[in-house]
Each structure stands twice: as C-alpha cells, then as structure tokens.
Amino acid sequence: MEWDEDEPIAIPIDGVLDLHTFQPREVKALLADYLAACQEAGILEVRVIHGKGRGELRRLVEATLGRLPLVASFRLAEGEQGGWGATIVTLRAGSASEV
After folding, report:
1. Per residue in 44-76, is it b (16+ CB within 10 Å) or e — as a string?
2. Which fold has domain 16-91?
3. What is the pLDDT of residue 3?
C-alpha cells in the first residue's frame, strides 16, 4: 500500500506533540490546530517536542505560540521533560472560539 502525503494523519490528542516527523512549513497550522484540540479536550498543559538541533524549529514554535490567543504562557521544559528540546505550553481555560 502506497502512502498518500495529501492524506490527513491522525494525531492523538494527549497533550504531547512531537514535531520530528513534520516539515517546518506544516508547523504553524499543525500547532494551532493541535493546541485548539487540546483546549477543547480540557488539556491545558501541552508538551511540544521540537528537538535541540540548531534551534530553528524551537524559534518557529515560540514565534507561533506568541501569536496564538489561546496560549496563556510557554517555557522551555525542565530536564526530565526534554530540556531545551521541548516547550511546555499553558493554554487558557475555555474553548478556542471564546478566546
């Protein structure tokens, strides 16, 4: 069976988003949609795994988070949560349509 890259990928809404398998051009929309789905599910703390690398993906994630009204705050993860390879996002209570 051949994989169709235009076909949507199901991502579990569990409060952890690993961006390693996504292209940078997909990150802004994916992050906004995932965080809105978490908020709707009542998950208000989300760990976004972007990896350490050169920091480009982390900077893209931070820039995107800074523009999303449903984001209350964000910070680099503690060591046991992935350190500077992950960002912890705190979402505002309520639904994305209320923000």
Report:
1. bebbbbbbeeeeebbebbbebbeebebbeebee
2. Ribosomal Protein S8; Chain: A, domain 1 (3.30.1370)
3. 47
